[in-house]
Amino acid sequence: MAAGILPPFDPADPLGIDDLLDDTDRALRATVRAWARDRVLPHIAEWHERGELPDVRGLTKELGSLGALGMTLDGHGCAGASAVQYGLVCLELEAVDSAVRSLVSVQGSLAMYAIHRFGSAEQREGWLPSMAAGEAIGCFALTEPDHGSDPAGMRTRAERDGGDWVLTGRKTWITNGSVASVAVVWARTEDGIRGFVVPADTPGFSASDIRHKGSLRASVTSELVLDGVRLPAAAALPEGRGLRAPLGCLSHARYGIVWGALGAARTCLETALDYARTREQFGRPIGGFQLTQAKLADMAVELHKGLLLASHLGRRLDAGRLRPEQVSFGKLNNVREALAICRTARTILGANGISYAYPVMRHMANLESVLTYEGTSEMHQLILGKALTGLDAFG
């Protein structure tokens, strides 16, 4: 570009962040955006209102064909994509609904990642190809009814019986639980916490959906019961020992949330902008009033600051330099700001903001769950507080 000639200002990309992407990144983003727009967007408001995700297995296979499942993993049918590319996929999926991004996140960043990182060669080859293709759905069972933010207190037990393991306990708030072919279950043993690969058709394993949710209504959320589930010794994840193992999986999943939450925020900002340009009060569009413009400007600033943060963290992850505290930084900031953007968009839409004719209230409600899962804001504040001060305020 000749000196002194500037590109036009783009309201959708005011900072020119797209300059940080290459052609492959943009093509992948466009593919996933088109799929989400054509396959999910026309139906998601109804699915959310009904509290169901019809044909979840069909959707999962389609996501597998896009390479969106376990996409940063190498081998076994996984795409081996960059962390930035995975983040872009999470953003585009959550721009339609958090439930769809949650399905992908739990499948790839939790269940598949745990098997890939901590599993045996037999476990990886036995499960990852079918999971990458979306033919098998996975879930990640850590949270219990009485132990959410404190997984070290889990009560689910795995006891040896001859050459077998026998698992007994309950897990709750498990995404994909009732549709899963396999569950990665974390349990307490006499030697500490360990992970197990549990086929869903194992006797004693059952899952039931959690109903009457006010958030993530289009997501399959379940309670798991393990009633004397007998597994061979080979079901244990060889490297899945200690609490560091499941927490490492959670850190991997949190990274996707850093991007995904901004997708919900982007949709709400776009909705508010369109509404402000067309909704007239006092004889002119409300976008012409100073207070409305101030809101829109603040929303855009926080959204695109969040995108810069997400991009920076993604490049650190690709370079092998991303620390868990930095993931907490991203999750804390981006989800909190995304929720604030959605709430502000709701005020611009006025009474229409609570109608499912618009996506704002749905995204706002969904982000209340995203704010909580994979570590509450308070937990990430304490993680950062400990890193900043060197003092442990947990407990």
TrEMBL record:
Limits of the Acyl-CoA oxidase/dehydrogenase middle domain: 139-229
Domain of life: Bacteria
The Acyl-CoA dehydrogenase/oxidase C-terminal domain, residue ranges: 240-388
Pfam families: Acyl-CoA_dh_1, Acyl-CoA_dh_M, Acyl-CoA_dh_N
SUPFAM superfamilies: Acyl-CoA dehydrogenase C-terminal domain-like, Acyl-CoA dehydrogenase NM domain-like
Keywords attached to this entry: FAD, Flavoprotein, Oxidoreductase, Transit peptide
Cofactor list: FAD
Residue ranges of every copy of the Acyl-CoA dehydrogenase/oxidase N-terminal domain listed in the record: 23-135
Record PANTHER family: GLUTARYL-COA DEHYDROGENASE, MITOCHONDRIAL (PTHR42807)
Similarity annotation: Belongs to the acyl-CoA dehydrogenase family.
UniProt protein name: Acyl-CoA dehydrogenase family protein
